[in-house]
Amino acid sequence: MLGSGGRGVRLGRVALGAVAAGAVAGAGWRTGALTPGGAAAAVAVGTPVFATGGLHWASVLFGFFTLSSALSRVGGARKAAGADVAAKGGRRDEGQVLANGGVAAVAALAAAAAGGEAAFPAFLGAVAAAASDTWATEVGMLSRRPPRSIVTLRPVPPGISGGVTPLGLAAAAAGGAAMGLIAALGGGEGSGGSRAGVVALATVAGLSGSLVDSLLGGTVQRVFRCPCCGVETERQVHGCGATTVPVRGVGWIDNDVVNLVGTAAGAATALVMAR
Ligand SMILES: [Zn+2]
């Protein structure tokens, strides 16, 4: 849509996109959902999305951000144990924002460069995967059953990557479906052929992305152990204050790298389905 006007129109759209992204990121920072760096990254991700597409692009990103922020506030006490295990706390920093939104932003830039809607399925698949993973984590931590490793099927600490619960899997499907529903209501049904088609596309892309996320999280993602408490964690400094020691995984593959690959898998799945 960017290519349809002159230079002035294009600059106007980019400015409008930056204002919209700034408003959303500012709200995220004020409510404690984003760190200052996370808010800056959200402007970088949101600007091309809000500037490029129609209502369906903007509403999918806005829906992901507001619903995921709301979910992270649910069940605070029961999540406390998992929060000490997971790599980072409830406030998203720039690494998490770029890992979850980077592929979506690239899809928006591709749409701006090429024009048309060919990149929309990739965008939707990437956001659906980010939503699936976020919802699975946030809702899965409320599960009364201990998570099991997707690789070994043995019980693992709540919050550790690669651990899955039936509740978390259901939440992953719901997260992808929710993004598809928002896309369909916003007028993005073309990518799936129909409203039901775009919901199915986002659900499958979301599940595929979170499956890749869990598989990588349970195999190559780095895991540490706290020498004081003896528990496994993704943190380099444990909640107790002790510096942790690596126990397995590849040193540079942290949760952000795994999330980035997961959203890319969601985008690829959606592109294949849209053909
Ligand atoms: Zn400790």
Give the helices and strands, then pairings:
Blueprint: H1 7-30, H2 36-52, H3 55-71, H4 76-83, H5 94-114, H6 120-140, E1 148-149, E2 163-164, H7 166-185, H8 195-219, E3 223-225, E4 232-233, E5 245-248, H9 255-274
Antiparallel strand pairs: 1-2, 3-4, 3-5
Helix pairs in contact: 1-2, 2-3, 2-5, 3-6, 3-7, 5-6, 5-9, 6-7, 6-8, 6-9, 7-8, 8-9
Zinc ion binds next to loops.
Could you describe the 3D structure shown?
The protein starts with 6 loop residues before the first helix and ends with a helix. It is 63% helix and 5% strand. The chain contains nine helices and five strands, in the order H-H-H-H-H-H-E-E-H-H-E-E-E-H. It has one domain. It is mostly helical. Helix 1 packs antiparallel against helix 2. The chain binds zinc ion (ZN).
Key features of this structure:
275 residues; mainly alpha; 3-stranded antiparallel sheet; two-stranded antiparallel ribbon; 5 strands; 5% strand
Principal-axis shape = globular
- What gap, in angstroms, lies between the N and C termini? 21 Å
Oligomer: single chain
Structural class: mainly alpha
Low-confidence segments, given as residue ranges, are none
How many helix segments?
A: 9
Q: For the report, how would you describe the main beta sheet?
A: 3 strands, antiparallel
Major sheet: arrangement of strands: 4-3-5
Count of domains: 1
- Give the mean pLDDT: 90
Strand content: under 5%
Which ligands accompany this protein?
zinc ion
